[in-house]
Amino acid sequence: MTLELAARVPARNFDVRFALAPGETVAVMGPNGAGKSTLLGVLSGLIKPDDGAATLGGHVLFSSREWVPPHARGVALLAQDALLFPHLSVLENVAFGPRCAGASRAVARDSARRWLGEVEALDLADRRPVSLSGGQAQRVAVARALATEPDLLLLDEPLSALDISVAPLLRRTLRRVLKGRSAVIVTHDIVDALLLADRVVVIDNGRIVEDGPTRTVLEEPRSSFAAGLAGLNLVTGQTVADGLTAPDGVHLAALTEPPLPEGEEAAAIFSPRAVAVHRDHPTGSPRNVLPVTITDLEPHGGRTTVRAGHLSAEITTAAAAELDLLPGMEVFFSVKSTEVSLYLR
Ligand SMILES: Nc1ncnc2c1ncn2[C@@H]1O[C@H](COP(=O)(O)OP(=O)(O)OP(=O)(O)O)[C@@H](O)[C@H]1O
What are 227-263's pLDDT values in tens digits? Predict the structure, then answer.
């Protein structure tokens, strides 16, 4: 459903206009204290703006004359921690929303089972929250949020409290359930923006300073915050036994724990600072070696960014001078497999 919002909260230095197309997922990023949580609070109804208005699917959430309370907005919020009711079983936790909406006990339980299946947690139905791992609890929390059939799903750093070993699996589940759903996800992780969202909005100092497709914001950052995120190397392709192969044949070895299944769509991400540049093919090193053509050299202070199409390396300006690099030159980028993070898409 279409979301339209204009809200001012002067006490929090917050002044944001924002729209979301039906079925669109947007990632909201920005420095600490920028106003990301305030945006979620305003949308969910936990914070009352001093002025402005918002509609969701044509229905008013708030305006100068109207105020719809949180539970009547068709908006579900998934927090950093799962916040399950400890005295209820997993199934009862998920059935809680449909029950509150007036469903019979049997219908609510059926719906809860369906959503638990959707997040691959049906086997947890009879467990108590206290016996769940962080990743399992968050899976159940996703099912509980979806079981209310929200028109808008808000996610507040849903993966940040999880171990890095389970975050990729839950990210994958989120990617599936967010498809075609109107959602706003606050995250500090550019990987979430790349893999979960259609668009990224950067908030700084209570104002939106960037808004566009994630790749565009990363490739042509206008704010210093986005510039800090930008420039990460991203290679998409399919998983193979030891890493990823891109459609153009580029192969990147990456260490993942646990290993990822083969033949799946994936993205490999690595920092330009992890990339070394060589005039000749390096031998005898356990690195990924990518033959590239230099498209641009950008010196900044003591360091130089060496661009080669979508890929970049950041080396010391002294090293760049020593290698006598020039645009058009064919060189080799190398990066250790331990520096490459691999994510299923
Ligand atoms: N309860 C509150 N009352 C008044 N001001 C607040 C309150 N909570 C936060 N603020 C202020 O509102 C502004 C926006 O904060 P907000 O929590 O929305 O930022 P954020 O982008 O979510 O930050 P973080 O990434 O640290 O969670 C900040 O200046 C903050 O100090």
Answer: 667 667 888 889 998 899 998 888 999 887 777 889 9
CA of 204 to the centre of ligand 1 (A): 11
Q: pTM above the 0.80 mark?
A: no
DSSP string across 228-250: HHTT-EEEEEEEETTEEE-TTS-
Which residue has a Cα nearest atom 28 of ligand 1?
Answer: 33
Which of 267, 185, 266 shows the shortest CA–CA distance to 232?
A: 267
Nearest-CA residue for ligand 1 atom 3 is 12
Helix (H, G, I), strand (E, B) or coil at 90: helix
On whether ipTM exceeds 0.85, the answer is yes
Tell me the C-alpha distance between 308 and 331, whole Å: 9
Question: What domains, with CATH codes, occur in the chain?
Answer: 3-223 (3.40.50.300), 231-344 (2.40.50.100)
Going by the DSSP 8-state scheme, the letter that residue 284 receives in this structure is S
